[in-house]
Amino acid sequence: MDQGSIARILKQVSGGEDEIQQLQKALLDYLDENTEIDASLVFSRKFYIAQWFRDTTMETEKAIKSQKDEDSSEGTHHAKDVETTGQIMHRAESRKIFLRSIIKTAPSQFSTLKMNSDTVDYEDACLIVRYLASMRPFAQSFDIYLTQ
Q: What's this model's pTM, rounded to 2 decimal places?
């Protein structure tokens, strides 16, 4: 991964969201911007939004399940674990709100919300996709699967 390019993209993307959300916004803007060139990008954009929403929901469910498992096995809860679960829930909720706002925005309205068109080009979009894919659980545990 080219961390320098990721950092450059994050500097160019406006917003106070977390890093993942900024990269998602940059990728969605790129896809929306180029839908006239390639109609399949409309499907790609919708797929990414749905996948990210699903991932956020799964992350929330895992946090709740792990909290319940710890409660039933230990009887007491460590303050750190509660804080971590709370942070996960808060981050997941903010990502869901972001994705819902993107879904509700009509394509014609979305063009007024775009960042500069020079921010993300094809190579940057490919880099963002690779970076976001590397953050998924399967990619993070790929070495374990290969070892087994």
A: 0.75
